[in-house]
Amino acid sequence: MGDLRGFLNVGRKAAQYRPVCERVKDYKEVMRPRSDRASEEQGSRCMDCGTPFCHWGCPVGGYIPEWNDLIFRGRWEKAVEMLLAANNLPEITGRICPAICEYACVLGINDDPVTIRENELAIIEHAFKNGLIKPRPPATRTGKTVAVIGSGPAGLAAADQLNRSGHRVTVFERDKKIGGILRYGIPDFKLDKRILDRRIKIWEKEGIKFITGVDVGVKLKVPELKKKFDAVCLAGGSRTPRDLKIEGRELGGIHFAMDYLIQSNRRAAGEKIPVEDLINAKGKKVVVIGGGDTGADCVGTANRQGASCVVQIEVMPKPADCRTETYPWPKYPLLLKTSTSHEEGGERHWAILTKKFIGEDGHLKKLSCVRADFSQKDEKGCPIMKEIPGSAFEIEADIAILAVGFLHPEHGGLVKELGVELDERGNVKTGSTYQTSVKKIFAAGDMRRGQSLVVWAISEGRSAARHMDEYLIPEKT
């Protein structure tokens, strides 16, 4: 490294955000950009470890120490090259990734870890600002055709890799615009959709064909799909939400988180939503059930819509503030996370079990809840949830948002028509080569591994593309 004592001389300076009083009034990104000079200083904190565990922690295996050193030295163009060698969408992960790599940073053992995520974002934004990101179509074409079904992070990463290999790639998306969960599931205040459009335009110029509004398996039949393409990658995500099937579930005002977020994103993009379908938190009491990132996004969205109050409840106990013996370094720990959305207002409660929805005239009015205890464990050491006697209480609510995760990909339509085998969790089953039980049909991302992080989806898409390339051009192996 250029400065062997950088980590001793420079302290960690994490991302800066717009003031809460300002940002809750709009859907613009909450994060403030960092100067190149500040990023160069933060890059100097990377220690040139003998064994850099950030590689191990990063699902895409980024060349993190290398590009940290490069930006410290001011060699931005080379840093961009190293960054893009392992990540197709660093401008996305630099904004929304939970930075697993930072929890595996060696410096983090007894000091604050390197600001890897912010450094990554600084590199790619420097590249776009200075004209370093240009269309680079493949020099030659293989004559092979590939269909990618789904345009989320897994599908986009796979399409990019396959196109670089010289195959003719067509990405099919059933929604109106490309992006999948990146466009419709993540709020604009975390990811401005112009960032996504900027990258898609580059890929279009490199030869990737994007087709929207097509539900493959319904509008485009499976026989035609197989006939037209030499290989197919299923990257439709895990879209079947986990429900909360308790008394009162049929009441009006109870919505799945993704339905709420998708509609909000469409409204932010200028789409008109019919009044009878509108989910609007303005002036209403909102309860978000589920304490994860999706739930936090719902909190931020409700605050921007002008909710009178927002309460987020989670059935599991409150996580620890720092590492416990259960999550030693360099594991990614289960810790208490306070997102920018939580900073903007609302209450948070843990170990709360929702027992019943209570309504009036067919619409939600209250949640009947009870506090849970997890102090006892079974023979395997797993916590046992028990209701605490006498702890029942109610929460007033006009709207309840269910953010309790996803079960598996949708089984109707394409999955059913293809007849691919499913695993015990209902995901599309593949072998080590990412190929399904049906010849030349591959799968990647949440559709294959279950609901996960965007960075894992990118990793999945890259891996699937490599195996698809070997399938299409056997002599490469």
Tell me what the structure shows.
This protein has helices at residues 6-9, 20-23, 36-43, 53-57, 64-72, 76-84, 90-96, 100-103, 116-129, 153-164, 181-184, 193-205, 222-228, 257-268, 293-305, 340-343, 414-418, 446-449, 454-472, and strands at residues 16-17, 31-32, 145-149, 168-173, 209-212, 231-234, 240-241, 254-256, 285-289, 309-314, 347-350, 352-360, 363-373, 386-387, 393-396, 399-402, 406-408, 441-443. 33% of the residues lie in helices and 17% in strands. α16 (340-343) links the parallel β10 (309-314) and β11 (347-350). The model has no long low-confidence stretch (mean pLDDT 96). The longest helix has 19 residues, at 454-472. The chain folds into 3 domains: 6-129, Orthogonal Bundle (Fumarate Reductase Iron-sulfur Protein, Chain B, domain 2), CATH 1.10.1060; 145-239 and 407-476, FAD/NAD(P)-binding domain (3-Layer(bba) Sandwich), CATH 3.50.50.60; 243-404, FAD/NAD(P)-binding domain. The protein contains 19 helices and 18 strands. It is globular and about 70 Å long. It is α/β, with parallel strands linked by helices and 477 residues long. The strands form 5 sheets. A 5-stranded parallel beta sheet has the order 5-4-3-6-18, with helices on both faces. A 5-stranded parallel beta sheet has the order 8-16-9-10-11. Strands 12, 13, 14 and 15 form a 4-stranded antiparallel beta sheet that branches.
